[in-house]
Amino acid sequence: MDTTKFSTTTTASHLGYYTKKSLGMSKEATSTNIFNEPVTYSSAFRRRRGHCDQDLVLVWLDASIDENDDDFQKSLAELRKIVVSVKRFTDADRCFQYLRRINDKTIFLIVSGSLGQQTVPRIHHLNKLDSIFVFCRNKDLHKLWARDWSKIEGVHGSIKSICKGLKRAIRDHEQLSIPMSFIPKS
User: How much is the average pLDDT of 22-37?
Assistant: First the structure.
């Protein structure tokens, strides 16, 4: 086995609580669950843990996006540090068309407060849509309708706050996607 040091984290899943270890560079890594049974992770799993860019897409829908604005470009650069593929839309119908065409990716959505109130009811049912981040100036106004939708991660007034929530949402998504095999001790 690889001599790389492992750090341990406790997480929850639909199977209950278990312990997982961050993985080194070997083809397989083994840890134990709470029952002291070995759990093996393959190298395919480690690729997923590295934010496999072809599996994730961030969609940003805002009618007031100005591609030439310096603040927008800085915000886009911050978001691309987390998810390389960021698709931007100013038109809700074009955004819907794009969302319906995607079949093999997990989608995270940033939507302006004004467009969010109209669009969330139309897209919330999409299985591939993981989390929605409402980006607005009037958080109190948009929190009222946002609380009715389970995929809305939060109502944010800054890109820094969205980046923090996006990192958490990706981590949570990856933890739910962990392939697990329980191998009894011999």
Answer: 43
